[in-house]
């Protein structure tokens, strides 16, 4: 089951991106997800 907080957070991420063309929106979502994963990885290393 998906946590409601995750969905709310994701929706706030893409709110600004929704006005962009679909490919640009998906690229920027991918960039945000990759950056978030990178930050979590660095935090786990410390």
Summarize the SSE layout with pairings.
Blueprint: H1 4-14, H2 22-45
Structure description:
The structure is a single chain. With 46 residues, the protein is mainly alpha-helical. The protein has one domain. Helices cover 76% and strands 0% of the residues. The mean pLDDT is 88.
Kindly list the characteristics that best describe this protein.
46 residues; mainly alpha; 2 helices
C-alpha end-to-end distance:
30 Å
Number of helices: 2
Helix content range: over 70%
Form type: flat
Helix-strand topology string: HH
β content, as a range?
under 5%
Characterize the largest beta sheet: strand count, sense, and whether it forms a barrel: none
Rg result: 13 Å
Query: Taking all residues together, what is the mean pLDDT?
Result: 88
Outline the low-pLDDT stretches: none
DSSP E strands, number: 0
> Which structural class do you get from the secondary structure elements?
mainly alpha
Number of domains: 1
């Amino acid at each position: 089951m998906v946590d409601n907080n995750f969905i709310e957070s994701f929706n706030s991420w893409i709110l600004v991106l929704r006005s962009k063309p679909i490919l640009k929106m998906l690229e920027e979502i991918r960039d945000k997800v990759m950056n978030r994963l990178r930050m979590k990885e660095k935090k786990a290393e410390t």
